[in-house]
Structure to design on (648 residues):
């Protein structure tokens, strides 16, 4: 190596340092990235806004995209908190193991996954088997489950959605969805579809079915009661006790995950979400607060 | 019916079945080009005649169709200026060549997944398993190919490795500590049709003994002629013990009965995201031994630089420097400063 280009290299290094120092300095106030579940995105956005009001030095960015997208982002190191409306899959834990990610899970809320129809639909309840048969495309007419003589119009999510995956596993027993199902981008789009489709059926987080201004189920929408099997009592996802007790058969925890025990701003935000104040927001948004063993596990994972 | 025809028929049949169902389709375009400036002008490669240039390197068009929960199809068009055949003049019996970017099919395959062993089966013109794991860790294909992938470009010595080939692979996970892959390919790469009856057999075992440390042993073998084999051995150590940092070691050896010498070498690289999705740094050292019987042909390459997400993921600017050193004292060191522009949308 001759002296000339060593000098040039040093100068180039200095030039790069000058160019990038402002960039590096601007990163010192790091934005915490939260990404994933569309079911959680509105709730976490409100929690983040409340948190930032009190902690303006801890900026947060909350994005949806689906549970799988959030989990992938955590595995790729491009987000700090991954939101998921389903349990992590074994292959995701295996990827985390390979990539040195130490997954810590926090249950943020309990959701009664709601089966919704247009309010003009005469049905009030379905069994789990009927929901499965409808979504698998085995039942194509509403009259076959006690409804009107209309062709069933299925609304669902795309496969990167945790809600899609949860229903597939827990209700459809891993048999595929009907190819007639319309794959919507989010919960809000499913609701919009149902409101304008008398023959529609959809699934969504319970936080999306209530009109926040009235505290009642959104006008034009009907939330069906679900029973575990024919002849057994049916329950509504709006019935808090039925969701907690498991009598409502498609309730689930909504999760957040971090890489390792959270520290700094990430820890402060999760502590706020799980605090009584944060859990009040959870309830105000139509979901149910965490209690019992899940709350205890959250406390352990924060240590 | 030969192997290629069978593959095409099976692929078409599976595709037809899959397309009957629902589909999620994604399209992505990725482009990268460089501005490079030779800092040395008297090196082995660098000269006063060509001190700087813009160089359009790659353009990809990627189409993926998630046909069902366990069936996926990918079509990838790739363009570079090595595919430089323009036209054939049938009267003069000549071909016209230039350096325009021209497209070619890089991937066209189906991926079928099942829960058993988290298995993934790929069939068609597929990604090979030779350096996929280390390439994923490197994540800077726009700056440089990984060690094994770019071996021939750097040294001029072919080690018969490619990123894509016609064939079938099966990858699976036995446990979180143990993964594997098996494959059979034409061995003619994506740029040539199969020219002989021999197939390339490949496989890897990945052991992940602790969270964040992987050891990958890879081997492939193909008969070159009657009684003449070519074998490649590769070992990777993939280390992720620091959040947002990758540390990788690659070791490689190629041994062909058609050549009087072995080729090999090793590479070590580290990447670190200073701020995820904003700014990263990288450093790499490659040691090439294109003729292991003649150490005078040994050479090394250092690549170091920054990965700046100037406009989010859509546009990254990657200033970097390349330093070539040669064991042969008659060859002088080459140094180039490069600014790589990476765009995806």
């Amino acid at each position: 190596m001759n002296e000339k280009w060593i000098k040039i290299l040093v100068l180039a290094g200095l030039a790069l340092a000058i160019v990038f120092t402002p960039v590096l300095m601007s990163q010192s106030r790091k934005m915490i990235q939260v990404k994933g579940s569309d079911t959680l995105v509105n709730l976490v956005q409100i929690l983040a806004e409340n948190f930032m009001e009190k902690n303006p030095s801890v900026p947060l960015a909350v994005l949806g995209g689906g549970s799988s997208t959030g989990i992938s982002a955590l595995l790729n190191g491009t987000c700090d908190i991954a939101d998921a409306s389903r349990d992590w899959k074994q292959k995701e834990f295996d990827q985390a193991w390979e990539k040195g990610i130490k997954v810590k899970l926090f249950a943020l809320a309990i959701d009664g996954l709601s089966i919704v129809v247009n309010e003009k639909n005469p049905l009030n309840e379905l069994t789990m088997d009927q929901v499965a048969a409808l979504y698998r495309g085995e039942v194509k007419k509403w009259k076959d489950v006690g409804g009107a003589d209309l062709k069933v119009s299925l609304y669902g999510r795309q496969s990167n959605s945790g809600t899609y995956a949860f229903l597939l596993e827990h209700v459809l027993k891993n048999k595929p969805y009907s190819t007639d199902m319309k794959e919507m981008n989010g919960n809000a789009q499913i609701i919009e579809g149902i409101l304008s489709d008398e023959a529609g059926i959809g699934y969504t987080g319970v936080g999306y079915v209530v009109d926040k201004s009235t505290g009642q189920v959104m006008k034009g929408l009907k939330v069906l009661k679900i029973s575990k099997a024919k002849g057994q009592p049916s329950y509504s996802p709006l019935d808090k006790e039925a969701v907690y007790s498991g009598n409502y058969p498609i309730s689930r925890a909504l999760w957040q995950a971090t890489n390792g025990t959270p520290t700094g701003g990430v820890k402060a935000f999760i502590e706020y979400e799980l605090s009584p104040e944060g859990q009040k927001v959870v309830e105000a948004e139509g979901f149910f607060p965490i209690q019992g063993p899940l709350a205890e596990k959250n406390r352990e994972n924060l240590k | 019916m030969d192997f290629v025809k069978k593959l095409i028929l099976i692929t078409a049949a599976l595709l037809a079945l899959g397309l009957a169902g629902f589909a999620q389709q994604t399209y992505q375009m990725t482009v990268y080009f460089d501005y490079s400036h030779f800092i040395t002008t008297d090196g082995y490669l660098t000269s006063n005649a060509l001190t700087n240039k813009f160089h359009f390197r790659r353009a990809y068009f990627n189409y993926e169709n998630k046909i069902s929960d366990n069936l996926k199809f990918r079509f990838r068009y790739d363009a570079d200026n090595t595919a430089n055949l323009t036209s054939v003049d049938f009267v003069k019996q000549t071909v016209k060549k230039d350096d325009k970017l021209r497209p070619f099919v890089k991937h066209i395959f189906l991926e079928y997944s099942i829960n058993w062993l988290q298995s993934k089966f790929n069939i068609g013109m597929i990604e090979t398993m030779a350096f996929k794991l280390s390439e994923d860790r490197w994540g800077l294909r726009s700056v440089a190919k990984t060690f094994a992938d770019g071996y021939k470009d750097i040294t001029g010595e072919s080690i018969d490795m490619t990123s894509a080939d016609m064939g079938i692979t099966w990858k699976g996970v036995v446990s979180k500590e143990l993964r594997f892959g098996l494959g059979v390919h034409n061995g003619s790469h994506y740029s040539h049709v199969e020219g002989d009856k021999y197939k390339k057999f490949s496989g890897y075992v990945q052991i992940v003994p602790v969270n964040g440390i992987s050891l990958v042993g890879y081997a492939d073998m193909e008969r070159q002629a009657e009684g003449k084999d070519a074998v490649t051995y590769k070992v990777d150590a993939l280390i992720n013990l620091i959040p947002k940092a990758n540390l990788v070691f690659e070791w490689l050896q190629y041994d062909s009965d058609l050549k009087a010498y072995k080729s090999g070498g090793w590479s070590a690289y580290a990447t670190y995201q200073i701020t995820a999705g904003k700014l990263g740094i990288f450093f790499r050292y490659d040691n090439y031994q294109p003729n292991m019987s003649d150490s005078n042909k040994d050479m090394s390459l250092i690549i170091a630089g920054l990965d700046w997400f100037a406009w989010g993921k859509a546009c990254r600017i990657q200033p970097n420097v390349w330093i070539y050193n040669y064991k042969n004292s008659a060859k002088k060191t080459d140094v180039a400063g490069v600014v790589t522009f990476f765009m995806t949308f």
About this structure: The interface with chain A takes residues 20-22, 24, 39-40, 66, 68-69, 118, 173, 176-177, 179, 206, 208, 211-214, 238-241, 243-244, 273-279, 306, 308, 319, 321, 323, 333, 335, 337 of chain B (CB under 8 Å). The longest strand of chain B covers residues 52-68.
